[in-house]
Amino acid sequence: MSVVTIERKVLEKNDAVAAENRARFQEHRIAVLNLVSSPGSGKTSLLERTLERLGATLRVAVIEGDVQTDLDAQRVARFNVPAVQIVTRGGCHLEANLVREALASLDLTALEMILIENVGNLVCPSNYDLGEAAKVVMVSTTEGDDKPLKYPAMFRTASVLVINKIDLLPYLDCQIDELTSNALRINPELRIFRTSCRTGEGVDQWCDWLRAQASGL
Amino acid sequence: MHELSIAQSIAAIAEEYLDRQPETRVRTVRVKIGELAGVVPDSLEFCFSAATAGTRLEGARLEIEHIRGRARCPSCGALTPVDGFTFLCASCGGEGLTLVEGNELQVTELELDDD
Question: Looking at residue A67, what is its pLDDT?
Fold first, then answer.
């Protein structure tokens, strides 16, 4: 019997493909964001409200990740932006090679921004780098103000937090200040937006930030 | 449930070694898993045996070394234990800790049956 030392990262293959993706995004000066949340927080709704505002002035594409169906890609394609659906067929998160395959359907020379909507899941996507410039984690007020404490890994790897469904606050026990301070306890660097995709409140500030990300490249 | 995909990545690393050393048999795959890496050890073990069934790794055991979370406090400089729920300095209550250990997801060693 003998023992050999390996010392290799389990996800090194994913990380290597993510680095290739990132190099391509940088080469084409495309700002790429990876949007993550639980199912039902409002990722697709935020994309719809975003594309209404930015679709005409910013050359943006969307990559949709879902376990099954292309319903989300159909929703965003109404805004006349290139939309690619990745169906993971049971997979609970996107991996870098799936994004690389999706890029084959996009003309990178014609884009300034790609918004990737990950599979609805607050656990698994935190381990997988896709090559994005930043992860944006979304949480909705209906999920409760302790969500960041329950899913700390995701809040730690994200750079931006969008708190959605703020129009429902009067009807909920969720304390938004508590939610915010819980998130900042996990990650004090988080940039925070408060939105209602239903009323449109706060979406302009989010879009201003997105525009700044694209023009900063 | 991304443990299956993690288990497959672990198996792929061991398989690569077997490609170079086809005469050997892997008895144990040793991995380091950080407490904050978001991986459930029991489910990873289960997935590993499922992922390796019918392959050259069939019967190999997955041995998991658990790495406790430790972080550096920016306020007092202490190295403090952390878990998923309390990301605060145990010495001074400081926030904004930098994780030092606990995020590991690494294959460390293979124990081989090469007698």
Answer: 87
**Which stretches of chain A score pLDDT less than 50?**
none
Of A11-15, B26-30, B35-39, B109-113, minimum mean pLDDT range: B35-39
In three-state form (DSSP H/G/I as H, E/B as E, the rest C), the secondary structure along A125-163 is HHHCCCCCCEEEEEEEHHHCCCHHHHCHHHHHHCCEEEE
Model confidence over B78-101: pLDDT tens digits?
Answer: 999 987 666 788 899 888 788 899
User: Residue B29 sits in which domain range?
Assistant: 3-68+102-113
* B97 lies in some domain: no
* Topology of the domain comprising A12-215: Rossmann fold (3.40.50)
Comparing CB atoms, the residue among A2, A5, A153 nearest residue B38 is A153
Assigned domain for B87 exists? no
The reported pLDDT for the residue numbered B1 is: 64
Shortest Cα–Cα distance, A200 to chain B (Å) = 32
ipTM for the predicted complex: 0.86
CA distance A109 to chain B (A): 33
Residue B95 lies in a domain: no
- Is the residue at B89 inside a domain? no
Structural domains counted in chain B: 1
